[in-house]
Amino acid sequence: MGVKIIPIGLLKRYFPNQDSMTLENAEGKTIAEALKGLNIPPELVSIVLVNGRQESKGYVLKKGDRVKLVPLVGGGSQRLGLCSREAGNHPFG
């Protein structure tokens, strides 16, 4: 039993024809090291969930860990009536 990596959203393109991948030799490596080994740019990953808990990319992987990789999410548009700082209607200024 290795470490299961589960990509979300646009990160799925790094796992062609798979919903997840099990890394057999990832124990003792950091998430950042695992990302590098998978050729996933770390800056594309904004949230890392390990066994349902948010962790940093410096987390050291353990046997049996389930890691969900959540990408950066962007978007929004004034045309759609969404709030933005530039429009002056963002609730937090």
Overall description:
The chain contains one helix and five strands. The longest helix has 7 residues, at 31-37. Strands 2-1-5-3-4 form a five-stranded mixed β-sheet, with no helix packed on it. With 93 residues, the chain is mainly beta. It has one helix spanning 31-37; strands at residues 3-7, 21-23, 45-50, 53-55, 66-71. The model has no long low-confidence stretch (mean pLDDT 85). A hairpin with a 2-residue loop joins strand 3 and strand 4 (53-55). The protein has one domain (3-80): Roll (Ubiquitin-like (UB roll)).
User: What's the CATH architecture name?
Assistant: Roll
Strand ordering within the main sheet: 2-1-5-3-4
The CATH superfamily appears as Beta-grasp domain
* Mean pLDDT metric: 85
Give unreliable regions as ranges. none
Q: What is the percent of helical residues? A: under 10%
Structural class: mainly beta
CATH-defined fold name:
Ubiquitin-like (UB roll)
Topology (elements, then pairings):
Layout: E1 3-7, E2 21-23, H1 31-37, E3 45-50, E4 53-55, E5 66-71
Parallel strand pairs: 1-5
Antiparallel strand pairs: 1-2, 3-4, 3-5
List keywords for this structure.
93 residues, mainly beta, Ubiquitin-like (UB roll), 8% helix
Task: Write a brief caption for the model.
8% of the residues lie in helices and 25% in strands. It is mainly β. The termini are far apart.
